[in-house]
Design brief:
2 domains; alpha/beta; binds magnesium ion; elongated; 7 strands; Conserved Hypothetical Protein Ylqf, Chain: A, domain 2; seven-stranded mixed sheet; binds guanosine-5'-diphosphate
């Protein structure tokens, strides 16, 4: 996109994250993969498929409260048609539901072990790209609120196990998946949900690009939120209309476009514009 630096991710970070994750995966019976329900495609990383092959996996479409419920239903159907167990959740709220799902998925292995006289529980870990809710989920499942996790790639320490329910132990460190940055569209979308830091992009251009996508998906929600009458507005014209309606003006009555940009990004992230999903299964090429 014009005026925007390409998004970069250090290959060294990626390689370290991969090594760390491979080591963690070896220790667990089941993987709880988190993605963002607003971006079920862009917020997953297909590298996990090969790394966690042959392990039971649960795909949790997190932050369902921020996503469009009809779109979420479409995604759940899409994933299930592919044989992926997918469930919409709010990581901090659905402890019992998630523990039950994990219990069901690990039952077979547990019963096989019991038949051989081994009465072992199951071990699980949480995996996902930054900001999808990994720490929130770990805290919720373990029933603790003071978990201090370091999910920066490369931070190595002895793994700690926490009890989460009667038969489940959980790795207290989330598995860090690096975001999918080779696809610029996916990368931009990850920046909208703050999975990659703002600094790597110019906020103004990011907000303009987000507005473009919002107008394609849910123009009436944007119009209602910012009291915009002309729904054909796009780009700077739309941002100016938002600044006008919010009174974001600078000296000399110029529009404070940066303030408008920050406002749109914040309000989208907080769900204030409405429950909006930015990609549908039909978009999968
Ligand atoms: N609205 C909403 N916010 C959530 C949900 N789960 C997590 N969050 C928020 O998302 C942000 C990132 O969560 P965190 O657990 O730190 O993500 P991590 O980087 O994957 O560990 C935090 O501000 C959480 O409060 C959810 O289901 N709904
Ligand atoms: Mg975290």
């Amino acid at each position: 996109m014009e005026g925007q630096r390409p998004i970069s991710w250090y290959p060294g970070h990626m390689a370290k994250a991969k090594r760390l994750l491979e080591g963690q995966l070896k220790r667990v019976d089941i993987v709880l993969e988190l993605c963002d329900a607003r971006l079920p495609l862009s917020s997953r990383n297909p590298a996990l498929d090969s790394m966690a092959a042959h392990k039971p996996r649960l795909l949790l479409l997190n932050k369902e409260d921020l996503a469009d419920p009809a779109a979420t239903r479409q995604w759940v159907e899409y994933f299930r048609a592919q044989g992926v167990e997918a469930y919409p959740v709010q990581a901090g709220k659905h402890r019992q539901k998630i523990l039950k799902l994990v219990d069901d998925l690990t039952r077979e292995k547990r019963e096989r072990a019991q038949a051989r006289g081994i009465s072992a529980g199951s071990r699980a870990m949480v995996v996902g790209v930054p900001n999808v809710g990994k720490s929130t989920l770990i805290n919720a499942l373990a029933g603790r609120s003071a978990l201090k996790t370091q999910d920066r790639p490369g931070v190595t320490r002895a793994p700690q196990w926490m009890k989460a329910g009667e038969r489940l132990e959980m790795l207290d460190t989330p598995g860090m998946l690096w975001p999918k940055l080779d696809d610029q569209k996916a990368a931009r979308r990850l920046a909208y949900i703050a999975a990659i830091r703002d600094e790597v992009l110019n906020s103004y251009h990011l907000a303009i690009s987000l507005l473009d996508e919002l107008m394609a998906n849910a123009p009436e929600k944007v119009a209602a939120r910012y009291k915009i009458e002309d729904q054909s507005l796009r780009g700077q014209g739309l941002m100016e209309a938002i600044c006008r309606s919010r009174g974001f003006l600078q000296k000399g009555n110029e529009y404070d476009l940066d303030r408008g940009a920050a406002c749109v990004l914040d309000e989208f992230r907080g769900g204030l514009i409405g429950r909006i999903t930015l990609e549908l299964p039909g978009d999968v090429s």
